[in-house]
Every structure is written in structure tokens, then in C-alpha cells.
Design brief:
This protein is 36% helix and 23% strand. By secondary structure, it is α/β, with parallel strands linked by helices. An eight-stranded antiparallel beta sheet has the order 3-2-4-1-10-9-11-15, with helices on one face. Helix 3 packs across helix 4, helix 7 packs parallel to helix 14 and helix 14 packs antiparallel against helix 15.
Length: 614
């Protein structure tokens, strides 16, 4: 969950590294640091607790010269956030500096062995063990840095992406990857390293995705070479990035999250483009069509995900069961891998992840594949690990999502799941052409309907002021919008630090109703659906206990409007697509409450965007 940046070429490295850290700050931000080999051959390392701007302030009057360097922004796993535990870490010989993303599971064993061989440690991190191990191998075997890294990768157990420089060889960066993302940008006689492509796009659109078990040797003169752990050279496959630098800027918005909420009409239009015919009669998802028999004959679908993607998966379960009549279940990827699951040939695992790098989801994929299941990925980031690990899949194409709290990726995942379910349902003839066409036509309408909801932004912003005082909130929903309630509560928790609980509205009376009073607002999603009358009853139960109710209702609703303290209307649409509309006011409400509380909306405490560790 950390961000790695590296550069080697003819330019001054420092500004490239710092700018790259800012681009990757969403991946981890409790400390940061840079290591550069200066023009006079010194290894300069500058580290600071806190945001990247703290590092800039600390380094302002230091020697920042040099054309080679590595940098890192950290999300702590081993050791508290402080200057000492910040990366890069330096070897005892003072010639090597290393940055690392991931976790080294056997670090304590390696550390004890190194202590017995005269090494001492200054940090609490597992990462320092890696740099000392590489140093030890170089010193005892008299080998090159490259050979030492190859040897070290055979001793290290865990997930890692590392980049390392040697002040005695200022023309080379060595990097390696195992279960943690690493990408190399290819420029004109210069190379860029990063945990994802966001720091690279402003310099080059040509990248190489480092695969598991590969070691990269990047030299100023001989260029880029990739090897496996037996030192056999690998073919280099260069990919052209589709993103633009404008997508990584705020574009006049106060926060990336705000921008990404308001991008949803465009992002969902992009997600649908070319996939649904204008009359709604045809849906094209090549990953499904090319594997038609797998979907038609599937005995079961398992959706594996974490966080917001898990909420999208809950909606996907209902879509698949409603339209495809295939049994479906939703699992936390983090639990799936340890649950001794019954899965095999004939099952489909659908893996959902915004970043495409979620460690637990990747582990679930490998487990499912090893048991013979067909694995389908739904991701946002092109070229990320999950699309490369799955048998097939669909990109949601909503553009880069920088804000840690997911917004447009959630609606993009739900949109893809809706298209997939309709397509498979028509293949199986388990949904009528008339129903499928109507839902598909409604999907096409979603971007314009979201624009209509945005007309209520000022109303929601004003409403947020009255909810800012709350210390606890309850979110209730039923049917397709029970997951929407979970997601609304998660958004509030993530960015405002207000405790919020999502709950099935009917289950409230089995315990949660004890919490309801005038001090705890209740947000109820009460759109016109097949359980609308039941939800109205649930609202009455809240009101009879002096609860304050904010209701999300269908336009023109008068029944709930008379019961609730305040309502926010959303347009009418096919019931299965209502989560795409109810998500918008819930996102806006959480956003404005967080702003009113003065929170760091884009980088909430303790969270990171790409969860690449367990």
C-alpha cells in the first residue's frame, strides 16, 4: 500500500521523484523519502514523517543534484510512522538504498540471521531486512548488485516490489516484483519506475508491466533488461497508456473526490459506450461472448471483492440471480482464501477491484484458478495485476480514480455487472427480450439522470450542515438498495470519521432499533420498488422512537415525504438500476459532511487507495 517512484536518465531526478510522490500519495501518506546519487557520487537520503510537502520542506536546502534516484510514500505496516521507519532504507555499508512495497513474511528469521552476522538495524521495518540482506550477499559473495538481488529474492518470502540503487554504480537501478505492482516507463534514453502509471504519463505513454518473479536491470547506457530468477532474459512487452495528464488533475474542483463524483455522467457513458446498441437490443461484452459456454453452463457464480467493490458485488449477486438464474454468492476476498472453499470446474469467480492490485482479491483468484474455476475480472486500471491474472474480464473504463474513497468505480462496477447479467440472461433465455431491452435502455439513460440529481447539489450541501453534528448514523435499505445503504455508510465513515452502520431495513427491529433516538440520524433508501410498503413501515418504526429520518425517494413520492424529516428525490428507473442513482446523493452527503468537518477528503487517515498488503 506504498508508492514507489524511480528515475534514471539525463534529467535532474529530484523534481521527477517529488512530482511522482505527489501523484502516488493516495497509495500511502504517513511518511515519504527520496534517495539520490549526487553529481559528486554521494548517496543522499532525505526522509520525513507526514505528507510529501513535509519532505519537500525538509529537503529544500539540501544537495538535490543527481540523475538517478528512488523515492517512496509509505502506509505503515511494520513500525509506526516516523522519520526512521520511512523509506528509503540504507544498508549498513552505506552504499545501498532501497524502497519497498509489500510485506516480507519471513523478515524476523532473516533479521535474526543478519544480527548473528554482525548487522544492526535502526528501524522497525521489514524493509530494512531486505536491504541488509542484499548488502550481506554482496559483501560475502563479492557479487554485483544484480546478482545479489536475484539471490535475495530466493530467500525472501512474501509480497514485494523493490527498487534499489548502489552509490558505487551510479548508472543502474535494479528492481524486482513478487505479488506487488511495478511498472517501468520507457522514454528517450531515460526510464521511470512507479507502483502504477500515474507518475509516468506526463513523461511517456510507453510502459512495461513487470511480472511476478521478474528482476529489472535498468542501465543508463545498455537500457532496460528483464530477467527471471534463474537469470534468463525475458521478452520486453511495451504497452501504450490510454490515460491523459488532465485526468490526474483536479480540474478546478476542490477535491479529487468531488471531481470524481461529478464525472459520473461521463464515466458511465464511457463505460457503456460501444457495449449497448442505441435501441437496447444488443449488448457486447467480448469477455463474456468469447466464453459463452462457461457462463451458460456455470453451476454457480462467486463474486470476490473487498470494501466498496464488495458492495457492488452484492448488487451483482441479485442481478445475476434475477436475470441469469444462476446461484450466486458474495465473499470477502480476505476470508475466501482462508475458508477452505468448495470451488472447482463449472464455477465462475468474478473478481472485482478498482485498482486491480488488491492483494486479497489476487489471492482469491489464484486459489480459484488452482481449483479449476473460471475467473473473470472487473477492474478499472488497464494493465494492472488482476486483469493479467484472470482468464478474461471487462474494464469499467471510468478513468483514473485518485480519491481514496471510491465513487465512480463503484457505479462503473455496478454498470458492468448489469450489462453482464443482461447479456448472460439473454444467452440462457432466462430473461425476456422485452425486459432485457427495457433495462438496457434505462442503463443508457443513467448518465443524464445523474445530471438531473446534480441539480439538487446545493440542497444536499445545505442539508449536510444539519448532519455534521452527528456522532453516529444509521443507513437502511432493502432489496437492491441494501448494498447502497452499506456503501453510503462506508462513505461517511471513510471520509468524515463519523460512525455509521448500514443495515437491512427489515432487520433493524431485531436489535439495531435500540440505538435509535433523536441524536442519531437515520438515512433510509425508500424508492418505489417491490418492498416499498415494507420500507414505509420501517420508517414509521423509526419515527415512533423519535428518530430523525432523511429519505432517498423516487420523484413524486408523497407518502414518505409526509413521514420523513427531509427527502431527496431521484428519478424513476428500472428497480435493478436504482443503486446507480441512489449512490449519488449518498456520495454527495458524505462529501459535504466531511468538508464541513474539515477532513482531508481525498486522503482520509489510515486509508490507502490500493490495498496491496493483507
Amino acid at each position: 500500500m506504498c508508492g514507489i517512484v524511480g528515475y534514471i536518465g539525463k534529467r535532474e531526478a529530484y523534481q521527477i521523484l517529488i512530482q511522482g510522490l505527489h501523484r502516488l500519495e493516495y497509495r500511502g501518506y504517513d511518511s515519504s523519502g527520496v534517495a539520490m546519487i549526487s553529481n559528486d557520487g554521494q548517496l543522499n537520503i532525505y526522509k520525513s514523517k507526514g505528507k510529501v510537502e513535509a519532505l519537500e520542506h525538509y529537503a529544500a536546502n539540501k544537495d538535490l543534484s543527481g540523475n538517478i534516484g528512488i523515492a517512496h510514500t509509505r502506509w505503515a505496516t511494520h513500525g509506526e510512522p516516523n522519520d526512521t521507519n520511512a523509506h528509503p532504507h540504507v544498508s549498513q555499508s552505506k552504499r545501498l538504498a532501497l524502497v519497498h512495497n509489500g510485506t516480507i513474511e519471513n523478515y524476523s528469521v532473516l533479521k535474526e540471521a543478519l544480527l548473528n552476522n554482525g548487522y544492526s538495524f535502526v528501524s522497525e521495518t521489514d524493509t530494512e531486512v531486505a536491504v541488509q540482506l542484499i548488502d550481506y550477499i554482496m559483501q560475502t559473495k563479492g557479487c554485483s548488485l544484480f546478482d545479489a538481488v536475484v539471490a535475495a529474492t530466493k530467500k525472501i518470502v512474501g509480497a514485494y516490489a523493490i527498487a534499489i540503487i548502489d552509490k558505487e554504480n551510479p548508472n543502474e537501478i535494479i528492481a524486482a516484483r513478487q505479488s506487488s505492482p511495478l511498472v517501468i516507463g520507457v522514454g528517450e534514453n531515460e526510464y521511470f519506475l512507479a507502483s502504477d502509471a500515474t507518475p509516468i504519463i506526463e513523461y511517456t505513454n510507453k510502459v512495461v508491466y513487470v511480472e511476478d518473479g521478474q528482476i529489472a536491470r535498468i542501465h543508463n547506457e545498455s537500457g532496460l533488461h528483464l530477467f527471471d530468477t534463474t537469470k534468463n532474459e525475458s521478452t520486453i512487452n511495451i504497452t501504450e497508456l490510454q490515460m491523459t495528464i488532465d485526468q490526474l488533475e483536479k480540474g478546478g474542483y476542490d477535491h479529487f473526490m468531488q471531481k470524481e463524483i461529478f464525472e459520473q455522467p461521463k464515466s458511465l457513458a464511457d463505460c457503456i459506450a460501444g457495449r449497448i446498441s442505441s435501441d437496447g437490443r444488443k449488448i457486447v461484452l467480448s469477455g463474456v461472448i468469447e466464453n459463452k459456454d462457461k457462463f451458460i453452463n456455470a453451476r454457480r457464480v462467486i463474486l470476490a471483492a473487498c470494501g466498496t467493490s464488495w458492495h457492488a458485488a452484492l448488487i451483482g449477486k441479485r442481478l445475476i440471480e434475477d436475470f441469469c438464474r444462476i446461484p450466486a454468492e458474495v465473499v470477502y476476498a480476505s476470508e475466501f482464501r482462508y475458508s477452505n472453499p468448495v470451488i472447482g470446474v463449472g464455477d465462475i469467480l468474478i473478481a472485482l477491484s478498482q485498482s486491480g492490485e488488491t492483494a486479497d482479491t489476487l489471492a482469491a483468484i489464484e486459489l480459484a484458478k488452482s481449483n479449476g474455476a473460471f475467473v473473470y475480472g472487473i477492474c478499472n486500471v488497464i494493465g494492472s495485476s488482476i486483469p493479467r491474472a484472470t482468464h478474461s474480464g471487462t474494464y469499467i473504463h471510468v478513468g483514473p480514480e485518485i480519491g481514496v474513497a471510491s465513487t465512480k468505480a463503484f457505479t462503473g462496477q455496478v454498470t458492468v455487472l448489469a450489462m453482464l447479467s443482461l447479456l448472460v440472461g439473454r444467452m440462457k433465455d432466462t430473461v425476456s427480450e422485452q425486459t432485457a431491452t427495457q433495462v438496457a435502455k434505462d442503463l443508457i439513460r443513467v448518465p443524464s439522470l445523474i445530471k438531473d440529481i446534480f441539480k439538487k447539489t446545493q440542497e444536499i450541501q445545505d442539508l449536510a450542515k444539519t448532519f455534521t453534528y452527528a456522532h453516529n448514523c444509521l443507513y437502511l435499505g432493502r432489496g437492491y438498495n441494501y448494498p447502497s445503504a452499506l456503501e453510503g455508510a462506508l462513505k461517511l465513515k471513510e471520509i468524515s470519521y463519523v460512525h455509521a452502520e448500514g443495515y437491512p431495513a427489515a432487520e433493524m427491529k431485531h436489535g439495531t432499533i435500540a440505538l435509535i433516538d433523536n441524536d442519531m440520524p437515520t438515512v433510509v433508501i425508500a424508492i418505489k420498488d417491490n418492498v416499498y410498503d415494507k420500507t414505509v413501515n420501517n420508517i414509521q418504526q423509526v419515527k415512533s422512537r423519535n428518530g430523525r429520518v432523511l429519505a432517498i425517494v423516487t420523484e413524486g413520492d408523497t407518502i414518505v415525504a409526509d413521514l420523513a424529516d427531509v427527502v431527496i428525490e431521484v428519478p424513476e428507473i428500472s428497480e435493478c438500476l436504482t443503486p446507480l442513482l441512489t449512490a449519488i446523493p449518498l456520495q454527495l452527503l458524505a462529501y459535504y459532511i466531511a468538508v464541513n468537518k474539515g477532513r482531508n477528503v481525498d486522503q482520509p487517515r489510515n486509508l490507502a487507495k490500493a490495498v496491496t498488503v493483507e
